[in-house]
Amino acid sequence: MSAKAELIGGNYTNVASALGASIAASGTLHLIRHARRSQRVDDERLCLTREIHELLHRVHADGASTADDREATT
Q1: How high is the pLDDT of residue 28?
Q2: Cβ-count burial of 66 within 10 angstroms (0-12 exposed, 13-18 middle, 19+ buried)?
Q3: Spatial distance between the Cα atoms of 58 and 62, rounded to a whole number of angstroms
């Protein structure tokens, strides 16, 4: 095999390797971006769930005290 053929073959190998690395890096970046987006959605969901829990706790406590007041007056 001539030096020119080896050089051309080596260049194709390097290009293919670089292309494969680029594809792998792109896939990794996509997964990282998706994970971050998913984490933000999960954090927001947790915050809303905590707020709803707190509101329900307040409503239930207020309703319980109102029922206690009604029982005391009857």
Answers
A1: 86
A2: exposed
A3: 6
